[in-house]
Design a protein that fits this description.
2 copies of one chain form a homodimer.
Chain A: H1 12-27, H2 43-53, H3 61-74, E1 78-82, H4 85-96, E2 103-107, H5 113-120, E3 124-128, H6 139-149, E4 150-153, E5 156-159, E6 165-172, H7 181-190, E7 194-198, E8 206-207, E9 210-211, E10 218-222, E11 235-239, H8 242-252, H9 276-287, H10 289-307, E12 313-315, E13 322-323, E14 330-333, H11 335-338, H12 341-350, E15 356-357, H13 377-385, E16 386-388
Parallel strand pairs in A: 2-3, 2-6, 6-7, 7-10
Antiparallel strand pairs in A: 1-11, 4-5, 5-6, 8-9, 8-13, 10-11, 12-14, 14-16, 15-16
Chain lengths: ~400, ~400
């Protein structure tokens, strides 16, 4: 392969230097963190209102407003603001009925929270591979896998090998790019699985006009500091199901039974409500979401142009039929240069360019490596070949 | 009994009116909520700094500063800021080694989070009575109870009836008033119990010069909107034990193993870190804590004077040997008027005076009523007789 200036870049060092130089050329000087928030709206105004009115905690007008405006944006009848995405996933799994000892189908490619939320609910992650196209679970692969791995037992399905019930599936929209959640919903129905969408990374991403998070029973967003919009720490749950929404809101507020003065709680509940001061940030950020997505699309185009003829690999583009928020820009290295991944990451970091790999496959982590898992060749290949690129909206 | 004006107040209605009128006389006009925050310091300045620097999430200078300043204030070598008190209790119980199926001794008098945190850890609450003096667990009662209820088994102790190991105790400092945590620590040692202090309500409260939260293995504070200081939502863990502190911090940050770019996680961890924007509020609030406590002491004196000769009951004062933060002012009704408690609460609420009872005894709530429990006559009596009074610092 040839570098920009026509020289051979076959050594690891030169490949790494090419990557760093290309990123420098796209980004100019300081690139800050990997995905830094941009506060260009009414953040200060709204947060100041919280302090002036005294409403900073789990009850307040910005919580209601954030929930209403988020619901309107994604097209969900119900949205519940929670303390972070992990808590939202935990709450969703409990609410759809995951019981201790149940297995929950999870992609081996995700941030660890997808698996730890399953453990928080008492469930056991059961890992599957992802599609090389969407980088999320593929519906047809899933059907074939479940047909081979499960057997029916009464109204539910059990893992042939462990004998444990498999009661739910979590699909994740990797780096913001929608997976085939409509197809997965069909397969979930065939195997009586509850379907939770881990949409932590995909606020603003649509698949055939349906916002991510709405194809299954529950969808969960994250507003951590590195997400498309941030509330400092926070998350939200969306659902079409009114009774599920009521149950999740009840569980998120310590399962307190409404009463004028008594403290009665009818279930083991959680303290998972988003504080008003965090929701204030969220309302201001949501107002800028369309702009943030335009910026990410522009940043994608910059990267796409810069890497086009370099031979290092392809910048991840949205899949057919989807509109992605391009949360985290990513370069899929060619197999030829992928064995230089670590050196490329190190050189970029040495030169002040914030990059990172994908997450280690969850089925290789010590707390999860004994969990049930399919072979995951696509996950392993993506992990070995992807480098995530600086993706702050300010870079566009 | 006689009302202020010398008339008999033997009917429920007149007792209730006397209470409402007395509270009106102490509080003047608007009394707002039961315990509203007071933002009289640098809250806006610090929160604005977060927005201007972009540090709003789980890493940031205010998180470090809040931890350091909180540790200095309470005299703890280690403090870890977390997302709320419930999460802090959960993390503490996991970190001290509570295993699924273990029983954890818990007072039947507490906010439900004390019990739900035990369930989150997989443990089973085992309820005990409290002292009529401190309203928290009494060390001598505890020793007698555990001697009767447990038998030794190897290095640990098991519940004679259920056969389950009893591995930890949580003591709570009710309404901010310290219980005898030093004495409880001795008893915990005798029965090989780990000791977690639920100090959610007691920031600023000391027992013989030791701040609450430091007598056991771990102490947990809450900074919910109704607490002495608030971070919107938030909590903190303090400990003297460096290895326990390191373990809790690791668990609170998804158990991520430090690495320049890899995402490796060596335990099932949690997403429990306090965001920087919430910590910014906390730093500003902590600067005002001594003033807030003086205000609460002044408010206590006002109430004490107002209720002195009314015959309704006594305003809760700090126990001998303790300095209380007087988080929530409380009136202990005389047995003669206590059967009018509900009417008194209702009339006050009707007249816009925010009051509430104590929490329903935890061993009577449906999710916990089948858990092991001693008889709890003191808890039942306090629940029947206590009315919590408006306690915002602004009222002093």
């Amino acid at each position: 392969m040839l570098s920009r200036n026509g020289n051979s870049v076959s050594t690891g060092a030169s490949v790494a230097e090419t990557l760093a130089a290309t990123l420098h050329s796209v980004l100019g000087g300081e690139s800050g963190g990997l995905h830094e928030p941009l506060f260009g709206g009414k953040e200060k105004e709204y947060v100041t209102q919280c302090i002036e009115t005294g409403y900073v905690s789990s009850v307040g007008p910005f919580v209601d407003r954030f929930e209403a405006e988020l619901a309107a944006y994604v097209g969900a009848p119900h949205a519940i603001a929670v303390v972070n995405g992990t808590s939202g996933l935990h709450l969703a799994l409990v609410a759809v009925g995951v019981q201790p000892g149940d297995e929950v189908i999870v992609p081996a490619l995700s941030f660890v929270a997808t698996a730890s939320a399953v453990r928080l609910s008492g469930g056991i992650p059961h890992f599957v591979d992802v599609s090389p196209d969407t980088w999320g679970i593929d519906a047809n692969y899933l059907r074939d896998y479940l047909r081979a791995a499960l057997i029916p037992s009464g109204n539910s399905w059990i893992n042939k090998i462990t004998g444990r019930p498999v009661t739910a599936i979590v699909a994740m929209h990797t780096l913001g790019h929608p997976c085939d959640s409509a197809g997965i919903a069909v397969v979930a129905g065939e195997f009586s699985l509850k379907f939770v969408e881990d949409a932590a990374e995909s606020l603003g991403s649509f698949s055939r006009d349906l916002h991510t998070g709405l194809a299954g029973d529950v969808g969960v967003f994250s507003f951590n500091g590195n997400k498309t919009i941030t509330t400092g720490g926070g998350g939200a749950i969306v659902t079409r199901d009114a009774s599920l929404a009521a149950r999740m809101k009840h569980l998120s507020t310590t399962a307190k039974v409404p009463h004028r003065f008594e403290f009665d709680h009818d279930l083991v509940g959680y303290n998972y409500r988003m504080p008003n001061i965090n929701a204030a940030l969220g309302v201001a950020q949501l107002e800028q979401l369309p702009d943030f997505i335009l910026r990410q699309r522009a940043l994608y185009s910059k990267y796409e142009g810069a890497f086009e003829d370099l031979g290092l690999g392809d910048v991840r583009s949205e899949s057919p039929g989807t509109a992605s928020n391009y949360w985290l820009q990513a370069l899929l290295l060619t197999p030829e240069v992928a064995n230089n991944r670590d050196q490329m990451l190190s050189v970029c970091l040495d030169e002040g360019v914030p990059v990172r790999p994908l997450w280690k496959p969850l089925n290789t982590l010590s707390p999860y490596r004994d969990c049930p898992s399919d072979d995951t060749p696509v996950v392993n290949d993506l992990y070995a070949r992807v480098i995530c690129l600086p993706s702050s909206a300010s870079l566009a």
